[in-house]
Write a structure and sequence with these properties.
- The chain has ten helices and 15 strands.
- The longest helix is centred in the last third of the chain and has 20 residues.
- A hairpin with a 2-residue loop joins strand 8 and strand 9.
- It has a nine-stranded mixed beta sheet, with helices on one face. A six-stranded parallel beta sheet has the order 3-2-1-4-5-6, with helices on both faces.
- Helix 5 runs antiparallel to helix 10 and helix 8 packs across helix 10.
- By secondary structure, it is α/β, with parallel strands linked by helices.
- It is globular.
């Protein structure tokens, strides 16, 4: 039995905890938050034996063998580095950190420790997305020509005009950290490395510090182009849609609902079809959970536990997290400098200090 501690009383409690509990090899024995009384209340309600008002106490607890982190990006590096120093595998959230330097420190420590260290990039664990990937790899639309991503919703943080990491870019968040970090990971998962990008960012009228929208153009190393139009301030927005256009057909993942993970439809058309047709995809695991994020995260949790028990690859790992942090940094520079940015691959272990 692997004894896990979860740092974070929101996403950590609502998603990570049930995702890890879905695997019989794991026991969640501790929960930490910034408020000791609230953490204790949530732990009691979730039948978690221990509760802490400080992440250090949880990470330092000798009974905790592995640590899952669900905090603001600016705090993740401290927690992850400390856990790895103590020999404890780490399951962290995206984005990996608030700065490229902090992400580099996390990657360097993970490589030195040789412990499993994963990032919760979860869209590619949705069953319809995995079916789409298999179809693309099997030539369902022929050679890919270009790709368009539209993601327009209004999240709760914007509705409430909250100033937290999900809205303020200085904390490693805003639309880049909260939404585009996912996009960067899944774009390279689908299509391979991004070679260059150009980005323009904007906030709300009269509140530019609340970074809500991005328009971006990217070019993959293989030569295809992708356009991204993303906003977390779109009242009654169109949802989340990926359109893959190939020489012989088109493939679409479309979710018009407000649920981030649940609700994607897979559509396909190949010459000489006159219209897209729906491809049925079923995920029996998803139906048992109240939150659409739990089933995809449970699949990553299984990988994490496999890595601890058997040494299986811990993917997506801190290397993938660092790569996304590189792309976020490039998008920020592109906006500041008003030009396209060439994106090099991640540095070697030696360059990371390992």
């Amino acid at each position: 039995m692997i004894r896990l501690g979860v740092v974070g009383c929101n996403y950590g409690h609502k998603v990570q905890l049930p995702a890890f509990r879905a695997d019989a090899r794991c026991e969640v024995i501790a929960l930490a938050g910034s408020d000791a009384a609230r953490a204790a209340e949530i732990a009691r309600g979730a039948n978690v034996p221990k509760a802490y008002g400080d992440w250090r106490a949880l990470v330092d607890d000798p009974a905790v063998q592995a640590v899952a982190i669900a905090t603001m990006p600016a705090l993740q590096a401290q927690i992850a580095v400390r856990a790895l120093e103590l020999g404890k595998p780490v399951f962290a959230e995206k984005p990996m950190a608030s700065t490229l330097a902090d992400a580099g420190a996390m990657l360097g420590k993970a490589r030195l420790s040789r412990l499993p260290a994963m990032i919760d990039f979860n869209f590619h664990q949705i069953i319809s997305w995995q079916r789409a990937k298999a179809m693309l790899d099997d030539g369902a639309i022929g050679k890919l020509r270009h790709l368009a991503v539209h993601w327009h919703v209004e999240n709760r943080a914007i509705q409430a005009r909250m100033r937290n990491w999900k809205t303020v870019s200085d904390d490693g968040g805003g639309v880049l950290g909260n939404f585009v970090s996912h996009c960067f990971h899944y774009l390279e998962w689908f299509c391979g490395p991004i070679a260059r990008l150009s980005a323009r960012l904007s906030g709300l009228p009269g509140a530019d510090e609340l970074q809500t929208s991005v328009a971006m153009a990217t070019e993959f190393a293989a030569g295809q182009l992708a356009s991204l139009s993303i906003s977390c301030a779109s009242y009654l927005g169109s949802g989340h849609r990926l359109e893959f256009y190939g020489e012989d057909g088109t493939l679409v993942l479309d979710n018009i609902s407000a649920d981030y993970m649940r609700g994607f439809e897979l559509l396909h058309g190949k010459r000489p079809a006159a219209a897209l047709a729906r491809i049925p995809v079923d995920d029996p695991a998803d139906a048992q959970y109240p939150d659409g994020r739990i089933a995809p995260v449970s699949r990553l949790a299984k990988r994490f536990l496999d890595a601890i028990e058997t040494g299986a690859p811990a993917k997506p790992g801190f290397a993938e997290g660092y790569r996304v942090q590189q792309l976020i940094d490039a998008a920020q520079r592109s906006h500041r400098e008003g030009r396209a940015i060439e994106v090099t691959r991640q540095p070697s272990g030696e360059e990371m200090g390992t």
